[in-house]
Design a protein that fits this description.
The protein is an alpha/beta fold. The protein has 15 helices and eight strands. It starts with a helix and ends in a 10-residue tail after the last helix. The model has no long low-confidence stretch (mean pLDDT about 95).
Length: about 350
Amino acid sequence: MTAMQRVLTTLSHREPDRVPLILLTTMHGAKELGLTIQDYFSRADHVIEGQMRLRRKYGGDCFFPFFYASLEIEAFGGSTLFVEDGPPNSGAPVIRDFSDIDTLEPPRVASTPCLFRVLEAIQGLKRQAKEEIPIIGVAVSPFSLPVMQMGFDRYIELIYEHPARFARLMAVNEAFCVDWANAQLAAGATTICYFDPISSTTNIPRELYRQTGYPIACRTLARIQGPTATHLASGRGLTIVDEIAATGSAVVGISTLEDISAWKIAAHGKITLLGNLNGIAMRRWSAEEAEREVKEVIRVAGPGGGFLLSDNHGEIPFQTPDDVLLAIGEATRHWGRYPLEWVDA
């Protein structure tokens, strides 16, 4: 099977030739090219070459041309802070006062250089992947983007105390998210990962999610012209699995903080699971520990398909050693081959 066939088969809740490995490496491309993280993400051709080398090295079943989340804040006129050994973070908030929301407008994707750089990377990878390798684009959800736009504490105050301005900010962010996601699909992305950590029950109560993040996701995903995967970025989501499935997402990223066997039961026939190797712990795993973790996750979630092996956050930490990533790839190819006869042996 090609990587595309493998992924599509498991999305239909059937068993392909083996469990797909969705290895979400981003910053490791800078290591491969001997560049700083900032230099690496400054050019599309760096990311194209980095993704190709990473897939050859670790044997993953996708390309992941995600740059960094605060790139969307740059599109709104903000800035990014780079560090030597970790993910870039957003700089000062672009919304400094609640009244700034009254005049905020969504960026124009076609005329925003930082976004166009991502589209160039997707186009370049599409020329390599053709129809054989899935390409995963990323859009931060309208409901989660304000944490970077204005800060977490001010955003929570907005939700509870300023409903009219909250509604206007969601309208602006929804318009941008839809345009940004559809531009990536038009450039060649196979699917869009809808990063929505604030909807996680780690961050807000379920009832508040049902009143806010859930209807926003339903409206937004309905306007994205391709398949989507919802990712809660390490946050819990088991108690909202039915709502996430009802948004139309085909995949949900699950937390290592929750019982994957409970997820397997709750998601059966509704939505495919993505996860849930512990991205923090894997920085210090030995190759033997990596194999053991992969084997256990496959044992629980692999039978019957509907499972994509990945980390639990949506991005492999920069400090994760090559030996661990190589061991994850080897263990997936060894223990993930269907039928999983060893599971019940």
